[in-house]
């Protein structure tokens, strides 16, 4: 049997990302290990109460892992929100929106009713997309 343990976001600055995910979103640190010999930091955070999955905050690779041009291109794509999306579920999208807004999260749009539920989105400091959804029973003609 296989299960998802972690997913990963490229980040421009691990300390800035750590402050956002723990200080603003209220998540917890799952792992923060620096391997000096590799000049590498393994940093994993996750929502409190959901211990079986984490989000790895991985720095955009620099030379020698990627050449300078490719590293810059990847960093630019991340900043534009083109590197992926994290989908979060909540029981009350409006309440979560209000709470996170008060903590300093800048949303791309207000909670909006969709056919699948109520949905909104924001980005982390690196530009990664995060969608916040209150899932409801799917009704094709719900507007």
TrEMBL record:
List the InterPro entries hit by this protein, alphabetically.
Answer: Glyas_Bleomycin-R_OHBP_Dase (IPR029068), Glyas_Fos-R_dOase_dom (IPR004360), VOC_core (IPR037523)
- Pfam family name, one: Glyoxalase
Q: Which segments constitute the VOC domain?
A: 1-135
Kindly give the SUPFAM superfamilies that the UniProt entry links to this protein: Glyoxalase/Bleomycin resistance protein/Dihydroxybiphenyl dioxygenase
The protein here is known as VOC family protein
